[in-house]
Automatic annotation (TrEMBL):
The keyword Metal-binding applies. Its cofactor is Mg(2+); Zn(2+). CDD domains: ALP (cd16012). It comes from the Bacteria. The lineage of its organism: Bacteria, Bacillati, Bacillota, Bacilli, Bacillales. SUPFAM superfamilies: Alkaline phosphatase-like. Keywords: Hydrolase, Magnesium, Metal-binding, Phosphoprotein, Signal, Zinc. Residues 458-468 have a biased composition (Basic and acidic residues). This is Alkaline phosphatase. Belongs to the alkaline phosphatase family. Residues 1-30 form the signal peptide. The keyword Signal applies.
Length: 489
């Protein structure tokens, strides 16, 4: 059961993410301390961004969950314009600063999970796998978000996973086990700093942890002045500076498969920025492309590339924000890599992203559809954009029947045999696209290589070179300690 709990492979539904487009929010220009959002007008009538450009007033910390170096390289091939001779750069490449070491402080495992990895870059301390901002003695560790709130800044958490999932949780909760999601949600509401809720903007999935079965937390947030929204239209119309947005019961669907009512990651990011920037003292915002990892675990290359595209859009949007907000630092990194993604496999020196571009749905989506009883042949026909061999379709049908039989005999959905049969079905569905694209995988879990770090804005040079993942938090703590804006109101 440990593998199932850690990596969320019990059900296929947990491997999906979000899509659809929300109108871009108009964002005000940067302000110096005490000037609100007015900025300074230049002679030509345009506004110039001003503020403290040595230590950032605002920090946007972005996490591509599971985004190891091979993911960034594969996405460069995937996003490349085939009509140009050179391999085009992605939005990330220009801002590469260095790499992060990701090892945890775990007595049994030396490859991290998202909880230990997140705790490291949220608090500056190593811990064991499964820990949510507690040390090896299960004592709470202060996060950079909590420090920001102590400084009077506004705070936000944006993710495509459940908002109670490991990476967002490490910023605003302290529990000894990442699976205690009801408790994490309760801490989001109950724990306060200076009489205020820790997080002003909470956007993602996981509505099941905020409903009647866990104390009607969404209603309590509303009573305290938060807008509660469940779709992109309501998010766009939200007027309060504090908002709880829960767009799915569990994880948000993968971008390629999601309903149009769902906001994209960049939409949630824009909404958060439009609210958080109203605070003269600045803000801390964490933005997680969580479903890169959700697609990596089941070796879903279509889902991975879709989610990398969504994360790149959010990253570029954050970079664009710094053009008119010079006192804002953007950092993007990963907590670990997932799946052992290989760009090419077998004897040929070829990786074929064009095949992936032709796909109409992710492997995760097709697996869920078939697992729910849909006709395999129809699902494959609607989801695949390349030829699906008839002999492989027979294997999909066989795996679907096996899963159905196991489900009928299982005493609960947590039966590990269901997870094994689901994985077998998904592998059968995805084999043609992995073969056609020449994509290789080594594991359904995490791998331990260093991950890339990208940064832009005041303090970006602090991220140069090969660093420990704890250094990200240590740098941000230093920035907030030296932030002149907190003492000038």
């Amino acid at each position: 059961m440990r593998f199932i709990n850690k990596f969320g492979k019990t059900t296929v539904a947990s491997t999906i993410l979000a899509a659809s487009v929300l109108g871009t929010t108009q964002l005000s220009l940067a302000s110096s301390p005490g000037e609100g959002n007015q900025g300074q007008q230049g002679q030509d009538g345009d506004y110039m961004a001003i503020g403290n450009t040595e230590n950032p007033k605002n920090v946007i910390f972005m996490v591509g969950d599971g985004m190891g170096p091979s993911y960034n390289s594969a996405y460069r091939y995937y996003a490349d314009d085939p009509n140009t001779k050179e391999l085009d750069q992605t939005a990330f490449d220009k801002y590469l600063k260095g790499t992060n070491r990701t090892n945890p402080n775990d007595p049994k495992e030396n490859v991290t999970d998202s909880a230990a990895g997140g705790t490291a870059f949220a608090t500056g301390h190593k811990t064991y796998n499964g820990a949510i901002s507690v040390d090896n003695n299960k004592k709470p560790l202060k996060s950079v978000l909590e420090q920001a709130k102590e400084n009077g800044k506004s705070t936000g958490l944006v993710t495509t996973a459940e908002v109670t999932d490991a990476t967002p949780a490490v910023y605003a909760a302290h529990v000894d086990d990442r699976d205690k999601k009801d408790e994490i949600a309760q801490q989001f509401y109950n724990d306060k700093i200076n009489g205020q809720h820790k997080v002003d903007v909470i956007l993602g999935g996981g509505s099941k942890y905020f409903g009647k079965e866990n104390g009607n937390l969404k209603e309590k947030f509303q009573q305290d002045g938060y807008d509660y929204v469940t779709n992109k239209t309501d998010l766009a119309n939200s007027q309060s500076n504090q908002v709880l947005g829960l767009f799915s019961e569990k994880n948000m669907p993968l971008q390629l498969d999601a309903p149009k009512k769902n906001p994209l990651l960049v939409d949630m990011e824009n909404s958060a920025l439009s609210k958080l920037e109203k605070n003269d003292k600045g803000f801390f915002l964490m933005v997680e492309g969580a479903s890169i990892d959700k697609a990596g675990h089941p070796n879903d290359i279509t889902g991975v590339m879709s989610e990398m595209g969504g994360f790149e859009k959010a990253f570029q949007n954050a970079i664009d924000y710094t053009d008119t907000h010079k006192d804002t630092l953007v950092v993007a990194t990963a907590d670990h890599s997932t799946g052992g993604l290989s760009i090419a496999k077998g004897k040929d020196y070829v990786w074929n992203p064009e095949a992936i571009h032709k796909m109409k749905h992710t492997g995760s989506y097709m697996t869920e559809q078939i697992a729910d009883g849909k006709d395999p042949e129809k699902v494959i026909s609607k989801g695949y954009g390349i030829k699906f061999p008839s002999e492989q379709l027979d294997k999909v049908k066989e795996a679907a029947k096996e899963l159905k039989d196991i489900k009928s005999k299982a005493k609960s959905e947590d039966d590990p045999k269901i997870a094994e049969a689901t994985t077998k079905l998904q592998d059968a569905i995805q084999k043609p696209i992995n073969d056609e694209s020449h994509t290789g995988w080594t594991t359904y879990g995490h791998t331990g290589e260093d991950v890339n770090t990208y940064a832009h804005g005041p303090g970006e040079d602090k991220f140069l070179g090969n660093k420990d993942n704890t250094d990200s938090a240590k740098n941000i703590f230093d920035f907030f300690t030296n932030d002149v804006s907190i003492n000038q109101n």
